[in-house]
Amino acid sequence: MPRIYLDHAATTPVDEAVARAMVAVLESGYGNPSSVHAPGREARQRMSEAREKVAQLLGARPEEIVFTSGGTEADNLALVGVARACRERGDHIVTTQVEHHAVLETCRALEAEGFRTTYVPVDHQGRVAPEAVAEALTPRTVLVSVMLANNEVGTLQPVARIADLVRSRGVYLHTDAVQAVGQVPVGVEELGVDLLSLSAHKMYGPKGVGALYVRRGVPLSPLLHGGGQERGRRSGTENVPGIVGLGKAAQMAHSEQPERQRGLTALRERLIRGIAARAPEAILNGHPTQRLPSNVSISFPGVTGEALVVDLDLKGVAISAGAACAAGTVEPSHVLRAMGLSEQVAAGTVRLSLGRANTPEEVDQVLDILTEAVERLRQAS
Ligand SMILES: *Cc1c(COP(=O)(O)O)cnc(C)c1O
Predict the structure, then answer these.
(1) Which CATH number is 16-253's, of 3.30.1330.30, 3.20.20.140, 3.40.30.10, 3.40.640.10?
(2) How many CB atoms lie within 10 A of CB 359?
(3) Distance 356 CA to ligand 1 centre (A)
(4) Fewest beta carbons within 10 Å, which of 156, 221, 231, 347?
(5) Would you call 325 a catalytic residue per the annotation?
(6) What is the pLDDT of residues 319-373, one digit of tens each?
(7) pLDDT for residue 56 is more than 70
(8) Which atom in ligand 1 lies closest to the alpha carbon of residue 209?
(9) Which CATH class is domain 4-12+257-380?
(10) Residue 46, CB half-sphere, CA atoms under 13 Å: how many?
(11) Model-level pTM?
């Protein structure tokens, strides 16, 4: 039985060089980076090298990088940190209906503190109109948060254009770039963002570590209080092995980005063309070209995504469903719903997310397995 992993949007395998770098720290780099002595200095040195690498990936300054426990904490810190720090100036946040839960649920928590949020809708391809974001701004708006790439349908948002419209109004701009890093360029100057979230385990690094880029001068109130690590922006003794792993993963994401983009796009097009040829009733979700190189979100009317996931798992292929089945009813994701998919189409949605180790032969095998399963499940229902 083949073992084919097509769920890189959920998590990626850890790169061998990343693992080796981390093991070296675990075995001998036990120092506390805050300590004055030699082991402490060594840990501090390793951390500052990792910070340089993350900064280089983003075209940022090292002091603008705050290490966190992952993408979720980076998103929480960006939104809560800026909102609370700007409380005197305003109480309004603008985001979109298709953000990751780490952004949406943080907005809900801020609403409980008295902030207001506008959730800008998207079109049927999952794109937000920059003008709609600009129109949502009020004199009380302090922050806009728009993801760079959607984790479910892969749609890329026009973040640079949004930056043009938003930042001239004195409003800070955050982007969740967790899915985009390593696949498309993520320069903070080119994007024009003030804050950017990333996560190591979506880019061949370890779980439980990520970073928030915070442009110099952007006010940020910390979530964690304590020893004042990360220039007071994130207290707590640092996850040195994780940070070193993130640094290595960032270095590789930076140097391999054009090659990953080319390779993944070719595999994606092979997959999309193959499905269109064998299952013409299938519907590709998201934008045809403004999408992540790795993402194929596709709906097969007449079957459920959940049944397909289980069926493919039995055949050694790992994919994920676009809607969750709860108590006999299929609950479509907020992303698919915001894009206006009918309940029936949303229920038949699966996400295949490619990685750099996938091959054209694997794609062809998956095409056979997937289209056979769709046919069989449809006849059974
Ligand atoms: C995975 C993901 C996150 C959360 O990152 P974690 O490191 O798993 O906490 C946030 N945003 C997006 C778009 C993601 O895909």
Answers:
(1) 3.40.640.10
(2) 11
(3) 19
(4) 231
(5) yes
(6) 999 866 555 556 779 999 999 999 989 999 999 999 999 999 999 999 999 999 9
(7) yes
(8) 7
(9) alpha beta
(10) 27
(11) 0.97
